[in-house]
Amino acid sequence: MTTLSILGGRVIDPASNLDLVTDLYIVDGKILSIGTPPANFSAERQIDAKNQIVCPGLIDLSVRLREPGAEHKGTIKSETHAAAAGGITTLCCPPDTNPIIDTPAVVEHLSHRAIDAGMAKVLPLAALTQGLKGEHLAELGHLKKNGCIGVSNVQPIINTNVLRHALEYAANCELKVFIYAQDPWLTCDGGIHEGAISTRLGLYGIPEIAETIEVARHLFLIEMTGVQAHFCRLSTARAVDMVKQAQAKGLPVTADVSAHHLFLTDVDISDYSSQCHVNPPLRSEHDKKGLREGLIQGGINAVCSDHQPHETDAKLSPFAMTAPGISGLDTLLSLILSLAEEMQIDLMTVLGYVTYQPAKILDIDAGTLAIGNAADIVIFDPSHHWILSEDNMHSLGHNSPFLGRKFKGKVMYTLINGQVVYTHSKVKSEK
Amino acid sequence: MNNIQLDSQNRLKHFLGIEGLKRDLLIEILDTAASLINVHEKAVKKVPLLRGKMVINLFFEPSTRTRTTFELAAKRLSADVLNFNIDTSSSSKGETLIDMLRNLEAMHCDMFVVRHNASGAAHFMAQHVASHISIINAGDGQHEHPTQAMLDMYTIRQYKSDFTPLRVAIVGDILHSRVARSNIHALTILGASEVRVVGPKTLIPKGIEELGVKVFHDLKRGLCDVDVIIMLRLQRERMQGALLPSAYEYFQYYGLTEKILNVAHPDAIVMHPGPINRGVEIDSTVADGVRSVILQQVSNGIAVRMAVMAMTLSTMESPSLKKEQ
Q: What was the ipTM of the complex prediction?
């Protein structure tokens, strides 16, 4: 029997609406009690969490681990370690690896490698169609049986008949579909929102309707097929409204937003900043506001890092020639805490966007400190100030538009199944 | 965003775009060009301003006119010139723009004149180039073509003397045009009373009004009472993306003819950055007519490019060379 207690921290569990300075007792990797120690409990290890916040480990709905296929950008080992350092204990990886996650063999390989790494828990999403080509169905039944948590199109499925059948078949397998909604014809190489800034910079813009048309097409098919669906990385205020209305109608849909879309807009690209080249593109101030409102008023259920690490060279070209994506694991928690400050909402609510809300979307027993649950826990110091630099990033990818930005809040410990997998150097040096 | 092109004393270090530059600086370029305009009339068609300097023309897109006038400009300033016409296929061999930059730097040159199909390419190179090298933007994607705009301003000043009362119409494919963007910035900075863009909805980019222009979709209305007409070249490829049905139809609605020209101010001049498509965006009678200043633009291009090259390289030098000018 292994025992651990976390003492004197401010325990916040959004799922159970708990916010209290108290103690947490863990036995054999599971949360045994909160507040009063179990009978005959003696802790093999105690963590002093005074002045710190103890909450469920973060759940990140989208992390590109880059393995297999692009290990020069990141590996399962490097990126799950970065996740742990960022307080993330469970993550979802999209199927666009190389090879693509469309066969049980790739799922197994990934799962084994993740278990070997021993850091964040990895939940693979499988490809909805073979090779993500939008032509033939992948073996969804087998993929589910082998551990895929859901399926995703990643790229648009152009043929609406194939899309209809894919959604029907996913519904039949009781698999949730994670939809990337971007019309391919209206999307070009620009990587920027279509508007005054794209015009000024002479970059081809991606219009708002590239997203809304695709969301609309999917919403009709979701209604028709009854499939459980989740929209990944919405970027426009109008799409948020559409999802909100669909939810009000009772459709089984949810949506998420990347943390960076809540903080950056196309104005941040004014200097051709390739670090701000992402897909979907950073949109207008109006859209940013709409995404934030979606968190409070409905339409957006969760926030993710949309982590996409890159080697330095991938961003070292004229804007349109650079690879899209931001390395986001190192900043997810801090951005969430900044969001609480900027929007003046309580910690309980914002932590919900990265804990029990994504758990609900994934339908997993995680993201909460419920008794009997796995002790996936993050302990962070909410008043620790730090500045993001290439030196203190844990991800192999240093591609972040937030380099040089001052943040508040830093992970001190991350526990997975009751094991401390990450300890901040500050705590280490104090010992 | 163009602050990178100025040195600590607000002099031109690179010439990347018109946006963000001060009126005084644009006037200085025009005045410097005026002082160099007659160099070709001398028995020795050269001045020694850039003697011993090495200029590299780095063209990632085909160009005849711009490259040639840059080459001539450099030679009239007594610089040595190397031309690199880089087929995009060779950059697809794996050499990145950064690697290419480093290799060329190693050849001890002083200036790169760059044309590239990616918007922001010149800006990108200026950010990464060794500090003693100047970058001149000879056209980056759909972004800017600042020397073209300055030669257009030079030509307008030749005929109109003062910018402030002018109404100027830029006509055609604004969406893909770096010339249009640079001209809009230049005219706005120099205080033109009205800048219009005229074209079909498919060729007018979103939010262009925020650059300070009025948008017209009807050619006749757009040209009404204007003093200057800048026609843009229509690329044949535009028919493919379903932006236009045919060159013939385009000419019927947006081609500049003698008849349409009558709605403009009687002294209006007609400009075109070239190469022109006769019978597509402009009728031959207009292109060769009395109001056309198209060939004048080409001649002025040499002096304007000489001015920009001399000004940028002089910021790299000791004050003695500055005095020589």
A: 0.91
